[in-house]
Protein backbone atom coordinates (compact mmCIF):
# COMPACT_ATOMS: atom_id res chain seq x y z
CA UNK A 1 0.00 0.00 0.00
CA UNK A 2 1.45 3.38 -0.99
CA UNK A 3 0.64 6.76 0.54
CA UNK A 4 0.39 8.27 -2.96
CA UNK A 5 -2.36 5.77 -3.92
CA UNK A 6 -4.41 6.69 -0.87
CA UNK A 7 -3.78 10.42 -1.29
CA UNK A 8 -5.28 10.60 -4.77
CA UNK A 9 -8.61 9.41 -3.35
CA UNK A 10 -8.83 11.87 -0.48
CA UNK A 11 -11.37 14.67 -0.48
CA UNK A 12 -12.54 17.43 1.88
CA UNK A 13 -10.62 17.94 5.12
CA UNK A 14 -8.63 14.70 4.75
CA UNK A 15 -7.10 15.88 1.46
CA UNK A 16 -4.81 18.24 3.37
CA UNK A 17 -3.67 15.72 6.01
CA UNK A 18 -0.06 14.54 6.00
CA UNK A 19 0.08 10.86 5.11
CA UNK A 20 2.71 8.17 5.63
CA UNK A 21 2.72 4.41 5.09
CA UNK A 22 5.53 2.39 6.68
CA UNK A 23 6.30 -1.32 6.73
CA UNK A 24 6.59 -1.76 10.47
CA UNK A 25 6.43 0.15 13.74
CA UNK A 26 5.87 -0.94 17.33
CA UNK A 27 2.49 0.76 17.38
CA UNK A 28 1.22 3.59 15.18
CA UNK A 29 -0.30 5.22 18.27
CA UNK A 30 3.04 5.06 20.10
CA UNK A 31 4.87 6.35 17.04
CA UNK A 32 2.73 9.48 16.83
CA UNK A 33 2.03 9.92 20.51
CA UNK A 34 3.73 12.86 22.19
CA UNK A 35 5.15 14.23 18.91
CA UNK A 36 4.74 17.98 18.77
CA UNK A 37 2.41 18.62 15.84
CA UNK A 38 0.39 21.34 14.25
CA UNK A 39 -3.38 21.42 14.25
CA UNK A 40 -3.39 19.72 10.85
CA UNK A 41 -3.57 15.95 11.31
CA UNK A 42 -0.73 13.54 10.52
CA UNK A 43 -1.76 10.01 9.52
CA UNK A 44 0.51 7.03 9.92
CA UNK A 45 -0.36 3.63 8.43
CA UNK A 46 1.75 0.57 9.21
CA UNK A 47 1.67 -2.71 7.31
CA UNK A 48 2.72 -4.38 10.54
CA UNK A 49 2.92 -3.56 14.24
CA UNK A 50 5.23 -5.44 16.59
CA UNK A 51 3.46 -4.13 19.70
CA UNK A 52 -0.01 -3.09 18.57
CA UNK A 53 -2.14 -2.02 21.52
CA UNK A 54 -5.82 -2.09 22.30
CA UNK A 55 -7.65 -0.51 25.21
CA UNK A 56 -6.69 -1.46 28.75
CA UNK A 57 -3.35 -3.02 27.83
CA UNK A 58 -4.90 -5.51 25.43
CA UNK A 59 -2.71 -6.57 22.53
CA UNK A 60 -3.89 -5.79 18.97
CA UNK A 61 -2.73 -8.58 16.67
CA UNK A 62 -3.08 -8.49 12.89
CA UNK A 63 -1.19 -10.24 10.09
CA UNK A 64 1.21 -8.03 8.13
CA UNK A 65 -0.02 -6.60 4.84
CA UNK A 66 -3.62 -7.80 5.11
CA UNK A 67 -5.35 -5.26 7.29
CA UNK A 68 -5.51 -1.57 8.14
CA UNK A 69 -3.66 -0.24 11.16
CA UNK A 70 -3.22 3.48 11.44
CA UNK A 71 -3.30 6.49 13.71
CA UNK A 72 -4.28 10.09 13.19
CA UNK A 73 -2.55 12.63 15.44
CA UNK A 74 -2.89 16.38 15.81
CA UNK A 75 -2.56 19.21 18.33
CA UNK A 76 -5.71 21.33 18.08
CA UNK A 77 -5.26 25.05 18.66
CA UNK A 78 -7.88 24.83 21.36
CA UNK A 79 -8.73 21.50 22.91
CA UNK A 80 -12.43 21.34 23.21
CA UNK A 81 -13.78 19.89 26.46
CA UNK A 82 -15.96 17.93 24.05
CA UNK A 83 -13.08 15.79 22.77
CA UNK A 84 -14.43 12.61 24.50
CA UNK A 85 -17.03 12.66 21.71
CA UNK A 86 -14.21 11.83 19.32
CA UNK A 87 -14.35 8.04 19.69
CA UNK A 88 -18.06 7.78 18.92
CA UNK A 89 -17.78 10.17 15.96
CA UNK A 90 -14.80 8.25 14.63
CA UNK A 91 -16.62 4.94 15.09
CA UNK A 92 -19.53 6.34 13.08
CA UNK A 93 -17.16 7.48 10.33
CA UNK A 94 -15.48 4.08 10.16
CA UNK A 95 -18.88 2.31 9.96
CA UNK A 96 -20.00 4.62 7.15
CA UNK A 97 -16.78 4.01 5.24
CA UNK A 98 -17.04 0.23 5.64
CA UNK A 99 -20.62 0.26 4.34
CA UNK A 100 -19.70 2.52 1.43
CA UNK A 101 -17.07 0.00 0.34
CA UNK A 102 -18.38 -3.42 1.36
CA UNK A 103 -21.91 -4.94 1.39
CA UNK A 104 -22.20 -5.38 5.17
CA UNK A 105 -23.95 -3.70 8.07
CA UNK A 106 -21.58 -2.24 10.67
CA UNK A 107 -22.64 -1.68 14.29
CA UNK A 108 -20.97 0.23 17.10
CA UNK A 109 -20.42 -1.62 20.35
CA UNK A 110 -19.96 1.19 22.83
CA UNK A 111 -17.45 2.54 23.48
CA UNK A 112 -14.93 1.65 20.81
CA UNK A 113 -15.62 -1.56 18.92
CA UNK A 114 -17.13 -2.05 15.49
CA UNK A 115 -19.02 -5.27 14.91
CA UNK A 116 -20.38 -7.12 11.93
CA UNK A 117 -22.87 -9.89 12.67
CA UNK A 118 -21.98 -9.58 16.36
CA UNK A 119 -18.25 -10.09 15.82
CA UNK A 120 -15.54 -7.50 16.23
CA UNK A 121 -14.08 -6.26 12.97
CA UNK A 122 -12.40 -3.07 14.21
CA UNK A 123 -11.29 -1.31 17.36
CA UNK A 124 -10.51 2.32 18.11
CA UNK A 125 -8.01 3.67 20.59
CA UNK A 126 -8.18 7.39 21.41
CA UNK A 127 -5.40 8.84 23.54
CA UNK A 128 -4.12 12.24 24.59
CA UNK A 129 -0.66 13.49 25.41
CA UNK A 130 0.90 16.81 26.31
CA UNK A 131 4.10 17.08 24.25
CA UNK A 132 4.36 20.86 24.34
CA UNK A 133 2.19 23.84 25.01
CA UNK A 134 -0.71 22.16 23.26
CA UNK A 135 -2.52 18.93 24.01
CA UNK A 136 -2.23 16.23 21.37
CA UNK A 137 -5.01 13.89 20.33
CA UNK A 138 -4.22 10.52 18.78
CA UNK A 139 -6.85 8.26 17.31
CA UNK A 140 -5.79 4.72 16.40
CA UNK A 141 -7.84 2.40 14.23
CA UNK A 142 -7.32 -1.30 13.64
CA UNK A 143 -9.57 -2.84 10.99
CA UNK A 144 -9.45 -6.51 10.02
CA UNK A 145 -9.74 -6.44 6.26
CA UNK A 146 -8.39 -9.55 4.52
CA UNK A 147 -7.54 -11.65 7.58
CA UNK A 148 -8.94 -15.16 7.14
CA UNK A 149 -7.60 -16.93 10.20
CA UNK A 150 -7.83 -15.79 13.81
CA UNK A 151 -6.12 -17.26 16.88
CA UNK A 152 -8.21 -19.91 18.61
CA UNK A 153 -9.03 -17.73 21.63
CA UNK A 154 -10.76 -15.01 19.58
CA UNK A 155 -12.08 -17.10 16.69
CA UNK A 156 -15.66 -16.95 17.95
CA UNK A 157 -15.71 -13.20 18.56
CA UNK A 158 -13.57 -11.69 15.79
CA UNK A 159 -14.14 -11.29 12.09
CA UNK A 160 -12.74 -9.50 9.07
CA UNK A 161 -14.46 -7.78 6.16
CA UNK A 162 -13.26 -10.59 3.88
CA UNK A 163 -14.87 -13.23 6.12
CA UNK A 164 -18.05 -11.17 6.51
CA UNK A 165 -18.64 -11.19 2.75
CA UNK A 166 -17.52 -14.78 2.16
CA UNK A 167 -19.63 -16.48 -0.50
CA UNK A 168 -20.68 -13.10 -1.93
CA UNK A 169 -17.27 -11.57 -2.68
CA UNK A 170 -14.50 -14.11 -3.06
CA UNK A 171 -11.44 -11.96 -3.44
CA UNK A 172 -9.29 -9.77 -1.27
CA UNK A 173 -10.79 -6.36 -0.59
CA UNK A 174 -9.11 -3.18 -1.77
CA UNK A 175 -7.33 -1.75 1.28
CA UNK A 176 -6.33 1.48 -0.48
CA UNK A 177 -9.88 2.34 -1.34
CA UNK A 178 -11.05 1.48 2.18
CA UNK A 179 -8.25 3.47 3.80
CA UNK A 180 -9.09 6.54 1.75
CA UNK A 181 -12.82 6.27 2.43
CA UNK A 182 -12.20 5.92 6.17
CA UNK A 183 -10.02 9.05 6.21
CA UNK A 184 -12.61 10.94 4.17
CA UNK A 185 -15.38 10.02 6.60
CA UNK A 186 -13.19 10.75 9.63
CA UNK A 187 -12.50 14.18 8.20
CA UNK A 188 -16.22 14.80 7.86
CA UNK A 189 -17.27 13.34 11.20
CA UNK A 190 -14.52 14.78 13.39
CA UNK A 191 -15.46 18.26 12.19
CA UNK A 192 -18.78 17.69 13.97
CA UNK A 193 -17.36 17.63 17.50
CA UNK A 194 -19.29 20.76 18.46
CA UNK A 195 -22.15 21.43 16.08
CA UNK A 196 -22.74 18.15 14.32
CA UNK A 197 -22.93 15.93 17.40
CA UNK A 198 -26.68 15.84 17.98
CA UNK A 199 -27.30 14.74 14.39
CA UNK A 200 -24.43 12.24 14.55
CA UNK A 201 -25.76 10.86 17.81
CA UNK A 202 -29.04 9.80 16.28
CA UNK A 203 -27.05 7.80 13.71
CA UNK A 204 -24.79 6.43 16.44
CA UNK A 205 -27.91 5.30 18.34
CA UNK A 206 -29.24 3.56 15.25
CA UNK A 207 -25.96 1.71 14.91
CA UNK A 208 -25.69 0.87 18.59
CA UNK A 209 -25.24 -2.85 19.12
CA UNK A 210 -25.90 -2.64 22.87
CA UNK A 211 -29.05 -0.52 22.85
CA UNK A 212 -32.03 -2.40 24.40
CA UNK A 213 -29.79 -5.31 25.44
CA UNK A 214 -29.30 -6.71 28.91
CA UNK A 215 -25.62 -6.27 29.77
CA UNK A 216 -22.97 -6.86 32.38
CA UNK A 217 -20.47 -4.01 32.59
CA UNK A 218 -17.24 -4.04 34.55
CA UNK A 219 -16.84 -0.65 36.24
CA UNK A 220 -14.00 0.07 38.71
CA UNK A 221 -13.59 -3.65 39.32
CA UNK A 222 -17.30 -4.23 40.02
CA UNK A 223 -19.96 -5.87 37.87
CA UNK A 224 -22.96 -3.70 37.01
CA UNK A 225 -26.01 -5.40 35.47
CA UNK A 226 -28.73 -3.57 33.61
CA UNK A 227 -30.59 -2.95 30.37
CA UNK A 228 -29.17 -0.35 27.99
CA UNK A 229 -31.98 2.16 27.52
CA UNK A 230 -30.21 5.08 25.87
CA UNK A 231 -27.07 6.87 24.81
CA UNK A 232 -27.27 10.31 26.41
CA UNK A 233 -26.39 13.63 24.76
CA UNK A 234 -22.67 12.98 25.27
CA UNK A 235 -22.84 9.47 23.89
CA UNK A 236 -22.56 7.89 27.35
CA UNK A 237 -24.42 4.67 28.06
CA UNK A 238 -27.57 4.83 30.18
CA UNK A 239 -28.48 1.60 32.00
CA UNK A 240 -31.72 0.74 33.71
CA UNK A 241 -30.94 -1.32 36.80
CA UNK A 242 -33.01 -4.16 38.28
CA UNK A 243 -34.53 -1.81 40.91
CA UNK A 244 -35.76 0.55 38.18
CA UNK A 245 -33.07 3.16 38.87
CA UNK A 246 -30.78 4.44 36.15
CA UNK A 247 -27.03 4.83 35.97
CA UNK A 248 -24.82 6.43 33.33
CA UNK A 249 -21.61 4.74 32.28
CA UNK A 250 -18.84 7.04 31.08
CA UNK A 251 -16.22 4.33 30.68
CA UNK A 252 -15.95 0.62 31.41
CA UNK A 253 -13.26 -2.02 31.76
CA UNK A 254 -15.47 -4.34 29.73
CA UNK A 255 -19.09 -4.80 28.71
CA UNK A 256 -20.99 -7.75 27.30
CA UNK A 257 -24.48 -8.86 26.57
CA UNK A 258 -25.99 -11.28 29.06
CA UNK A 259 -28.58 -13.64 27.67
CA UNK A 260 -31.30 -15.26 29.76
C1 LIG B 1 -9.27 -2.00 20.92
O1 LIG B 1 -9.98 -2.76 20.29
O2 LIG B 1 -9.13 -2.10 22.15
C2 LIG B 1 -8.55 -0.90 20.19
C3 LIG B 1 -7.64 -1.45 19.13
C4 LIG B 1 -6.87 -0.37 18.43
C5 LIG B 1 -5.84 -0.96 17.49
C6 LIG B 1 -5.19 0.12 16.66
S1 LIG B 1 -4.16 -0.56 15.40
C7 LIG B 1 -3.51 1.01 15.06
C8 LIG B 1 -3.33 1.71 16.39
N1 LIG B 1 -2.04 1.36 16.95
C9 LIG B 1 -2.15 0.65 18.07
O3 LIG B 1 -1.20 0.20 18.74
N2 LIG B 1 -3.44 0.47 18.36
C10 LIG B 1 -4.31 1.12 17.40
Order of helices and strands: HEHEEHEEEEHHHEEEEE
Which strand order do you get reading across the main beta sheet? 1-2-3-7-6-5-4
Bound molecules: biotin
Largest sheet: 7 strands, mixed
Please count the beta strands (DSSP E, at least 2 residues each).
Answer: 12
* Alpha plus pi helix count: 6
Tell me the span between the first and last alpha carbons: 46 Å
Rg? 18 Å
Strand content: 25-35%
Query: Percent helix among the residues?
Result: 10-25%
Cα shape: globular
Mean residue pLDDT:
95
Can you give a write-up of this model?
The protein is α+β, with helices and mostly antiparallel strands. The protein is built from six helices and twelve strands. The chain has helices spanning 3-7, 28-32, 86-101, 161-164, 175-190, 197-206, and strands at 18-25, 42-49, 68-74, 107-109, 113-116, 119-129, 136-143, 214-219, 222-231, 237-240, 246-249, 254-257. The strands form two sheets. The chain has a seven-stranded mixed sheet. α3 runs antiparallel to α5 and α3 crosses α6 (197-206). The radius of gyration is 18 Å and the shape is globular. Bound molecules: biotin. Biotin binds next to α2, β3, β6 and β7.
